[in-house]
Write a structure and sequence with these properties.
It comes from Phtheirospermum japonicum. The protein is an alpha+beta fold. The chain is built from 14 helices and 17 strands. Strands 1, 2, 3, 4, 5, 6, 7 and 8 form an 8-stranded mixed beta sheet that branches. Strands 9-10-11-12-14-13 form a 6-stranded antiparallel β-barrel. The protein has a 3-stranded antiparallel beta sheet with strand order 15-16-17.
């Protein structure tokens, strides 16, 4: 296949899709479940055991099955509950399709050479080549991070041609949209895609030299597109799970933004259960000032919705929201401030401007903000009266400032509120975590069974009082209110209805402060209505309460 080698060296192949298009598709599938049961075994053991090889094929079939079912249920399941597809694997001795479990049971695992997404065919339940929707080749060595090996590309091309030939002579009505054939190239960590299409009427078939005929057609009359190889399984064998950049204490991260290149030293790492990691860092130029540093997902990663979306909201979306606030002139000590936002850079020559840089994590988005404090979730003690009133005042002040420019938070919870203690000055609270903020009507808030508003859970959007309602829930739980076990939206809504109707929330907050009880009553009266929160009157009442208790003046910055 010297001709194929020559073409590959010249980088003559197109790409089947742009990475950014895949990432946008990932983002659109944020809530789509891809439930897999079988993990891909580690590459360390990939070639040493028949049992491991069997598990690898089961994991590949499971990956294809989860992908097909997840997409079908999302886009077409409301019209037809039964998916028209199934997954099978191909045996090289007779080129027939089997379920991997069946091949394993018959001791034929060594002969499996491909897996496929198949269209169900009642007349031929064993499967035919023209029923193939997509093929996947599982090989130990598929290539490096730039492109697949020539040998596996050649293998994929001949598999694709066989499918094209089967479709061309099929008696079934094959949709025109299936004219290209997609072949996945995967091993236990990485994957790539080959797309093949072309005019089969120009295939000059020679029975005495089948492969030569096929090679001539592929070379002269086909259109081949090949993606680069990318990571699709992590070390635990979970497919579609991104490996985010992990930094260690003492390491220095170089960041490039509009003002040039800056260095940040990692001073502390936060990896709370269920939360994406973030860091406390300090500028190399000014190490005395601590800052929050958030690291996004590497731009070449094609991870899916759950892990990648959380990173995207934490970094890219929050950067956008905070930038909008800055552009609109919002200034409040109760809001986070952007210190820097840019991308990871590195010493030496960078190839990012001309292609994909080989340096690890080059181009990864980073956000740096201040001030730094302790999250309410990490505060060991419950709120007392002073803390609860101060927190309510400060967060309402942040919400008021944002609301003046039409911005709502959408994700108020203990992890997104920090307690800041400046030297020799009053401690205060800052509302962080603006990645899920509502800037436009089409934006959707985060959903949390304990802290989301009733409107967010019922309708997937905020009413005028939703942020205030979430603040009330946070104050209630952080002041000793009973934390129920909630495992469904229906259960969460039932808890809210019962708690408000029996006035359990008002009673608990009333034990702390009369003004907090009154505020909860006020929020209850607004929930579900179009009437906006009167921030000014409640800020004045809370400010007066704080001033009366310690005789100091409280800032309400706008």
């Amino acid at each position: 296949m010297s001709w194929l080698d020559d073409i590959s060296k010249d980088n003559a192949f197109d790409v089947p899709f742009e990475s950014i298009d895949l990432q946008k598709f990932d983002y659109a599938l944020e809530a789509v479940p891809f439930q897999q049961l079988t993990r891909m075994p580690s590459s360390i053991y990939a070639s040493t055991s028949t049992a491991i090889e069997s598990t690898a094929y089961l994991a590949l079939e499971d990956f294809l099955h989860a992908s097909v079912n997840g997409l079908w249920d999302t886009f077409w399941g409301h019209e037809n509950d039964i998916t028209p597809f199934y997954v099978a694997s191909l045996h090289d001795t007779n080129l027939r399709f089997y379920q991997a479990e069946e091949a394993i049971a018959k001791g034929k695992i060594g002969g499996l050479c491909a897996s496929a997404i198949m269209l169900k065919n009642p007349r031929h339940p064993q499967g035919k080549w023209d029923d193939v929707i997509e093929l996947a080749l599982l090989r130990h060595d598929i290539g490096n991070l730039s492109k697949p090996h020539i040998s596996i590309i050649g293998e994929a091309l001949f598999f694709a041609l066989r499918v094209l030939l089967a479709r061309s002579i099929s008696r079934t009505n094959v949709p025109l949209s299936l004219s290209p054939v997609f072949v996945l190239l995967v091993n236990s960590q990485f994957g790539g895609v080959v797309r093949v299409e072309g005019d089969l009427s120009k295939l000059d078939f020679d029975l005495d030299n089948v492969y030569e005929s096929a090679a001539v057609w592929i070379k002269n009359h086909s259109r081949v597109a090949i993606s680069k190889v990318d990571k699709i399984w992590n070390k635990l064998g979970n497919a579609n799970w991104g490996e985010s950049l992990k930094l260690e204490i003492g390491s220095v991260l170089m960041l490039e933004d509009s003002n040039g290149e800056k260095g940040y030293r990692i001073d502390k790492v936060f990896e709370n259960d269920g939360e994406v990691p973030f860091y406390i860092a300090s500028s190399v130029e000014d190490p005395r000032k601590p800052l929050f540093l958030y690291v996004g997902s590497h731009p070449s990663h094609l991870e899916p919705a759950w892990e990648d979306m959380r990173l995207w909201y934490q970094v890219q979306r929050q950067t956008k929201v905070l930038s909008v606030m800055k552009q609109k002139g919002l200034s409040s000590k109760y809001l986070p401030q952007v210190t820097a936002s840019g991308r990871v850079t590195h010493p030496g020559h960078c190839r990012r401007t001309s292609g994909n840089c080989d340096y690890p994590f080059c181009g990864t988005p980073v956000l740096v903000t201040g001030p730094v404090g302790t999250t309410v979730a990490d505060m060991a003690a419950r709120f007392d009266s002073d803390e609860a009133i101060t927190c309510c005042h400060d967060i309402l002040s942040a919400l008021s400032s944002a609301a003046s420019s039409g911005i709502r938070h959408g994700d108020i919870r203990p992890e997104n509120v920090i307690w800041v203690k400046p030297d020799m000055r009053r401690a205060y609270y800052v509302l962080i975590g603006w990645g899920h903020a509502i800037l436009e009507e089409r934006d959707r808030p985060a959903l949390n069974l304990h802290f989301s508003s009733t409107s967010a859970l019922q309708e997937g959007k905020l009413c005028s009082a939703s942020d205030a309602e979430s603040l009330v829930y946070m104050l209630y739980f952080c002041s000793g209110g009973d934390l129920p076990v909630l495992d469904s939206v229906e259960g969460a809504l039932q808890w809210r209805e019962t708690s408000w109707s029996r006035r359990l929330i008002q009673q608990r907050l009333g034990e702390i402060s009369a003004v907090l009880k009154a505020f909860a009553d006020y929020v209850d009266s607004l929930c579900g209505t179009p009437y906006p929160v009167d921030y000014e009157i409640w800020l004045r009442r809370l400010k007066r309460q704080i001033s009366d208790e310690d005789g100091s003046e409280v800032e309400t910055s706008r």
